[in-house]
Amino acid sequence: MHREWVESLPDFVLDDGTVFDKEKIFPYAYRHSFAQRHADAGVPIDVLAELMDHDNYQTTKTYFRVKEVRLREAVERVTNMQFDRHGTRIWGAITTVLDAERTRRAVGAVVVPFGTCSEPSNVAAGGGACPLRFRCVGCDHFSTDVSYLPDLRSYLDDLLRQRERLRSMSEAEDWARAEAMPSEAEITRIRRLIQRVTEDVETLTEAERAEINRAAQVVRQTRQNFLGMPRIRQPLPDLRPERPA
Asked: Which SUPFAM superfamilies match (predicted)?
């Protein structure tokens, strides 16, 4: 019955002028179409996994892929709103490529919490050898963009909560509390960065802001999908200095 119905359908002409092979239309393919349409609409991967009754995100990711053209357009828009650690907007062309279905921002940079890093030793290690232990906002090799704004705000909230929690821990010794305490300098720097990025976005027209918001959503969804990140806040990085053995 299903095959007869498929064969009765008119030909589907693709963008390149070729006719879609109807042999590729079968009941199980509808699940892939369902996943692809929801992913294109920006549905978070954890929600999509629940809709498809999957136990883990890795299974869900096999059912769809972000369309390259759409992703490239989004990345180009977002990288035009890129900022250094001081919140100064970075102008100029930025080369973007797709590598193993991950968004790569600039050749010679790696993704780090809340932005990208161009520090040579960290780049060579794929982002796992930061000399500053991910105190990114204190390093000139760090840059960010509007797609990371929600992450920066969440991180600031986490730092403030951690500071208040540590201040109320009377059972902890002073040295332990001081070592674990987020620095006021980092809190101030992140606040300033958020303010600068927000102010710059507010100078755009309503239409431009809408485009940037849509592009940021696509890029964030891509990071979430292909890096396997559910919609939860990232854990605070370990900022304690290494001690000699």
From this structure: DNA breaking-rejoining enzymes
Q: What is Dmax (Cα atoms) for the chain?
A: 78
Q: Which residues have a Cβ under 8 Å from the Cβ of 41 and sit 6 or more positions away?
A: none
Burial class (CB in 10 A: 0-12, 13-18, 19+), 83: buried
Residue length of the chain: 245
> Residue 115 in contact with residue 73, Cβ under 8 Å?
no
Residues 67/178, Cβ–Cβ less than 8 Å:
no
Q: Label residue 188 by pLDDT band (50, 70, 90).
A: very high
Mean pLDDT of 20-26: 84
Both tokens of residue 203? 């100078």
The DSSP bridge pattern shows strands 89-90 and 82-84 to be antiparallel
Q: Residues 190, 152: contact at Cβ < 8 Å?
A: yes
Summarize the confidence of residues 37-48 as an average pLDDT. 76
